[in-house]
Amino acid sequence: MLDIQDMAKQVLAGNRRALARAITLVESGRADHREQALELLETLRGHGRTALRVGLSGTPGVGKSTFIEAFGLMLTAQGLRVAVLAVDPSSARSGGSILGDKTRMERLSRDKMAFIRPSPSQTQLGGVARRTREAIDLCEAAGFDVILIETVGVGQSETMVSEMSDLFLLLLAPAGGDELQGVKRGIMEMADILLVNKADGDLKLTAMRTCADYSGALRLLRKRPQDPQDFPKALTVSAVEQNGLDTAWAEMTTLNNWRRENGHFKARRAAQARHWFEAEVRERLLARLAVDPVRSVMKDLGSKVENGALTPSAAAEALLCEHLSLD
Ligand SMILES: Nc1nc2c(ncn2[C@@H]2O[C@H](COP(=O)(O)OP(=O)(O)OP(=O)(O)O)[C@@H](O)[C@H]2O)c(=O)[nH]1
Ligand SMILES: [Mg+2]
User: For residue 239, which atom of ligand 1 is closest to its CA?
Assistant: First the structure.
């Protein structure tokens, strides 16, 4: 039997093993674990700690892992505690990224000031969202100063990560003008800071040109209320040579401080909390439809609708009121 109150105490004390066990608990699909996870999260609610939650996205190979290792080490050297969470909806399929990240973030994973948690093998984006959101809460309760949430750039997962971050960074590769247009407008609009990575060696000039192109593109976007002047902005970095990381951190700090002073930080977190509440309700309602007995009732009602024995509306009414007790 898990002692949830004790686990909560140890998480609050910043015990990394307790934190790891707590994350395993919120990841579990078992009903009894779910109940304990809710108790744990409820016990920890209102702990009063605030980490800076930073989402980071980018296409495969752009240098996310290399960047996180270098950036994370820079922050821990400044005395900050850094947690890294990876969101990879495809990890169940590829199976390779967890191993890859562990070897790539070798130094950071050995750092006592850092905590790295790879993505679990889970395919459903909904499950990944809840797990990541709760893992963020746990890391925050454990007193981490910065939580980096990495995701590979595949559409939906970026939106999801930006909905759980205070700042959202997009890591980009140096490239010609064609590829600039390959970045979807919606993703550009979510980003607070664009980082053109690999600004070193032969790629340095291309990176600077790419950065200028993106700066131009950002100026054309609609101004957002949550931005001070000159944001969002594009910068060049080299994760390998560890260049520009301090500037990136300074810009992130400037933006975050401004948002905190102007009420945007709190407002964004509040809106996110509401968003995830509604998403969870939707998700769980849909999940009910997919399992028996509701699933078979739905199938039967569907047949009756097909052969004209019931109207679609009457069948829907019957399902929702009689079988889901929603009216
Ligand atoms: N020249 C140069 N190469 C880099 C830089 N950052 C990363 N790379 C290289 O780019 C390749 C991919 O880097 P990763 O950090 O694994 O990229 P990733 O975005 O995590 O990739 P996935 O996990 O597959 O999505 C590696 O060979 C890195 O050495 C950089 O700043 N400069
Ligand atoms: Mg990686």
Answer: 31
Asked whether 130 lines ligand 1 (CB < 6 A), one says no
Q: Which ligand is nearest to the CA of 152?
A: 1
Tell me the fold of 1-46: 1.20.5
SS3 84: strand
Residues of the chain with CATH 1.20.5.170: 1-46
H helices, E strands: number in the chain? 16, 7
Q: Which residue's C-alpha comes closest to atom 32 of ligand 1?
A: 198
Distance 236 CA to ligand 2 centre (A): 19
- CA distances (Å), 207 to each of 137, 177, 178, 201, 204, in order? 36, 11, 14, 10, 5
Q: Ligand 1 atom 27: the closest Cα is on which residue?
A: 61
Choose the residue to mutate in 66, 73, 85 for probing ligand 1, maximizing ligand atoms within 8 Å of C-beta: 66
Phi, psi dihedrals of residue 279, rounded to the nearest 5°: -65, -40
Options 3.20.20.10, 3.40.50.300, 3.40.50.2000, 2.60.200.30; which CATH number does 49-262 get?
Answer: 3.40.50.300
Q: Summarize pLDDT for 220-279 with one digit per residue, the tens.
A: 888 899 999 999 999 999 999 999 999 999 999 999 999 999 999 999 999 999 999 999
Pinpoint the residues of the chain covered by CATH 3.40.50.300: 49-262
85-131 pLDDT, tens digit each:
988 765 444 444 544 555 668 899 999 999 998 776 655 666 788 88
Query: Rounded to two decimals, what is the model's pTM?
Result: 0.91
